[in-house]
Amino acid sequence: MTNWQDPQVIYNWSVAFADITFLMLGLFGWSYLHSCQVENALLRRQLSFRWQMVSYLTGRTLLFVTLILSAVTSLGAPPYLYCHQILKFLAFSRNIVIACTSTNLAIRTWTIWKTNYFVCVFLGLITLGHWFTLMLDSTETQFSTSLSSGFCESTIVDLTYSPATSTYTTILIFVLVKLKIFGHWRSSSCSLWTIIRTQGVIYFFIAFFASVVPLVFAWLNLNYIMNVFFICPATCIMYDSLPHPLLY
């Protein structure tokens, strides 16, 4: 049986974590550069700015910056002070991206239920709750950093809120999936399969299943690398599967 607390095992998974960061940077970078229609249209004033675009553009840009900074940090390290600050920023920006992802899905659901006051209030409250738990996780997560090998090495010494945050994220997306399906089903005579296939519900399912893997490993608590190993690819998958804001 693998001893997940063995330093060599942790080191091996740290190397794999750096590799998958570069892989996600390449894949998401390619997708980002080939899907800049909204940014280009806004810069050329061919598209009027709408509030629904705020979370989409913020999360999308911040995710790209986070991946670049994560990749650069894995190659070499600045002085100790900056190492700790960079890691704190990466934890913060990662959670902002996750919050923007759930907000985008909530906005998509809101467009279906915008005539129902109680559902809209409910969506607003659970989304604000998600932002609050993510910000709490960002501020309370503690790092121990070192530069013994010339790299910005870190040990996450306090993960009190991470399992709870992962659970909240998964439950929130599941609730949005249910509301999305029921919202279309109550106003349409189409079959459930037709609704799932034609109304963008598949995006919600992708986001939901992508959030399950980090949730499982957060609760398993094998080691501090495995606790966050799948967050990066899951976040990229969730964000890259979001409906285009022009479809809202």
Q: Distance between the terminal alpha carbons, to the nearest Å?
A: 49 Å
Poorly predicted ranges: none
The share of residues in helices is over 70%
Spatial order of the strands in the main sheet? 1-2
Shape field:
globular
The average pLDDT value, as a whole number, equals 80
Largest sheet: 2 strands, antiparallel
Given the structure, what is the number of helices?
10
**Which class of secondary structure composition applies to the elements?**
mainly alpha
Strand content: under 5%
Query: What's the order of the H and E elements?
Result: HHHHHEEHHHHH
The overall strand count is 2
User: Any idea what the radius of gyration is?
Assistant: 19 Å
Strand and helix layout:
Layout (H helix, E strand, L loop, with lengths): L6 H27 L3 H7 L9 H23 L4 H34 L3 H24 L1 E5 L6 E6 L3 H25 L5 H7 L2 H20 L3 H5 L2 H10 L8
Antiparallel strand pairs: 1-2
Helix pairs in contact: 1-3, 1-10, 3-4, 3-10, 4-5, 4-6, 4-10, 5-6, 6-8, 8-10
Structure, explained:
- The chain is mainly α.
- Helix 1 packs parallel to helix 10 and helix 4 packs parallel to helix 6.
- The mean pLDDT is 80.
Summary, kept brief:
It contains ten helices and two strands. The chain is mainly alpha-helical and 248 residues long.
